[in-house]
Amino acid sequence: MFKLFLKILKIKNNTISVQGKDLDQAVIVDVGKKIKNKIKRLFRGSLAIRQIDAGSDNACEQELVALSNSFYDIERFGIHFVASPRHADMLLVTGPVTRNMAEAVKRAYEATPEPKIVVAVGDDAVDGGIFKDSYAVLGGVNSILPVDYKIAGNPPTPKTILCSLLWILEDLDKASGKS
Question: Which of 74, 70, 51 is CA-nearest to residue 61?
Fold first, then answer.
């Protein structure tokens, strides 16, 4: 092991290029600035999101959690996740709606104040995904709730979710006539 370490030290160019990561971060910051401006205009500075797991395999949840890490840090753009649907502006629903979770998802929807924005995140939430024909699954979120927007992917990456949130906010801005 020590001999291998010495060989590594003798190699002069043992650095890895991270140019792509810098570019990704620049894109994220640019998208984030646009999101922040839209949130200021539409939600007076803060967008509260309640994430609901309707019976997923946790892949989409992991990507949503990644949005809060130091690389994406969506809090700096005015987006935060809330624990109660009563405080939410937007519901992000992940996973296919299972028979066991249908009532809980409906209650969360009913507890969310108007105007409600419902977003199905991931292929499972959009149409049931690979669980579509299972006896335990009712289907996508639209089988029990009116879905306003869909973010496809299995699972969608944090960058895809962030760009989709910008697109949703731009659409809401057009619909409100504030732009």
Answer: 51
The DSSP H or E segment spanning 64 is helix 59-66
Q: Which domains does the chain have, with CATH numbers?
A: 20-176 (3.40.50.12280)
Token pair 């066991």 is found at 100
- Alpha carbons 130 and 123: distance in angstroms, whole number: 8
Confirm if 38 and 170 have CB atoms less than 8 A apart.
yes
Residues 87-93, mean pLDDT to the nearest whole number = 95
Residue 156 burial by CB count (10 A; 0-12/13-18/19+): exposed, middle or buried?
buried
Summarised one tens digit per residue, pLDDT across range 24-59 is: 778 888 888 999 999 998 888 899 999 999 998 999
Structure tokens at 129: 């995904």
| CA–CA distance, 17 with 4 (Å, rounded to integer) | 22
Contact 179, 173 (CB under 8 A): yes
The H-or-E segment that residue 110 falls in is helix 102-111
